[in-house]
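Quick question, first post here. What does this chain look like in 3D?
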Amino acid sequence: MQIYLPIAEVSVNLPLLLAIGTMVGVLSGMFGVGGGFILTPLLFFIGIPPTVAVASAANQIAGSSFSALLAHLKRRTVDFRMGTILLMGGLLGSWIGVHIFSLLRRAGQFELVISLLYVVMLGTIGGLMLAESLRALRRAKDPNAGLIRRRRHTWAHGLPLKMRFRTSQLYVSAIPPFAIGAIVGVLAAVMGVGGGFVMVPAMIYIIGMPTQVVVGTSVFQFLFVTSFTTILQSISNRSVDVFLALILLVGGVIGAQIGVRFAAKLRAEQLRILLALLVLVVCLKLLVDLVIRPAEVYSLLAG
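> Answer (accepted):
Ran it through. Tokens below.
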């Protein structure tokens, strides 16, 4: 079943769009990531213009984040105080990112820059995730691995402006969470991603936040930052396709609930390996599209 998207000015397969939204929602619920780093390139592949894909993806991430947040609230794995600090940084970063988006679009270099950024980002993330997941599987087979505890104190604990975060059981400076939130906000606006692939590892390894609380808190931040980004993109760039966003949103809300349930039952290391492989496949497809010669080459001739 084909539907026409007025802002994107293309016709797409409705069941395929729903399937993409659902898959990304599952990733959001399972890993605490927005899923935009997979969603946006997939929209490129089915013919959605990059400007529309980036702006509309933020709306889907907001919907799947809301669905996942409800599930995490039931488990009481959301640190609202830490989430508020992240959110303050995220809103600032989102505002900056929307202006960068506008500058790139006016310069006529948006598609090339975004494609190159995705190749670099996905290649790096996929490689790191795959290596870490393989190490985790090896540690799981080691009977002495459980005796090694991760250090909770890092350089971030020596910075000023310390606050107590009771849910996370931390007493740490508010500066690193604010900075991490700001970076994620810029990524949400410029690349149409939630930023969980940056936030979740950073909060675990830099701040020392417990993994189960990081996932729920990151989803809380994504909800508000991506909603704010969608509003700004609609006002500033008019690049949000409401029909596209709505279809992805329905799939994302359903998928997020499924993902949260899977996360409670399946082995995290094996799931991360599958996600890493998926990220690397998408990266390879983008790279091939950038370097191969198109089937039809157009040129402009004078007169």
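The mean pLDDT is 76.
The chain has ten helices and four strands.
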